[in-house]
Amino acid sequence: MKYFLVALVLFFSACSIKEYSHTQSKIIIIKSPKIKFADVGYLRNLNDAIELELFMAGKSIKKITINHLVCVDEEGCMSKSGFNEEYLHPSYPTELLQNILLAKPIYNSKNFLKTESGFVQKIQNEDVNIKYEVNLKTIFFKDKKNNIILKFKETK
User: Fold this and answer.
1) How many CB atoms lie within 10 A of CB 110?
2) Residue scoring higher pLDDT (122 or 75)
3) For residue 71, what is the domain's CATH number?
4) In degrees rounded to 5, what are phi and psi of residue 146?
5) Are 34 and 86 within 8 A, CB to CB?
6) How far apart are CA 109 and CA 62, in angstroms?
7) What is the Cβ-side half-sphere exposure of residue 57, based on CA atoms within 13 angstroms?
8) What is the pLDDT of residues 28-49, one digit of tens each?
9) Ramachandran region of residue 75, left (φ > 0), alpha (ψ -120 to 50) or beta?
10) Count of domains in the chain?
11) Beta carbons of 33 and 60 less than 8 angstroms apart
12) Closest listed residue to residue 94, CA positions, set 73, 66, 119
């Protein structure tokens, strides 16, 4: 019973309304098996809690929140690995999307190369062929093998 209550509290706190301390408007491009999007959106975060709100023609069309779980408007909440399996690729580490949105290294900083204004990672194995680049104005993730692109660019 005790574990059930803890799980219940975690579930409801993961999707609860948060006051985010950082809000940035971004030009967002997402190409994955389930999401195709290219327009403006908002990226909000408070520490590692993130909300990505996608707009098309000025209307909010999708909101993805990431904390302990990943919550998508119409789909409800799921584990991070469940989100990867459904929206991205099942072989990705559970924290991949969260790290990308926060401009942090992925895959435990594998092949991390510091650049003048950020860093680059190139990761290739039997499941992925990734180029991940972060600089002052852009976050760019491309997995050629799985045909997935995530790009977040400053609007100014």
Assistant:
1) 12
2) 122
3) 2.50.20
4) -105, 5
5) yes
6) 30
7) 0
8) 999 999 999 999 999 999 888 9
9) alpha
10) 1
11) no
12) 66
Sign of CA dihedral 117, 133, 80, 128: negative
What is the pTM assigned to this prediction? 0.84
Range of the domain at 67: 2-154
Q: Are 51 and 32 in contact (CB under 8 A)?
A: no
* CA dihedral for 72, 145, 44, 61, sign (positive or negative): negative
Site of tokens 């997935």: 148
- How far does Cα 141 stand from its chain's mean position? 10
- C-beta separation of 44 from 53 below 8 A: yes
Q: Which two tokens stand for residue 122?
A: 């190139």
Where residue 57 falls (left for φ over 0; alpha for ψ -120 to 50; beta otherwise) is left
Question: Which H helix or E strand runs over 18?
Answer: none
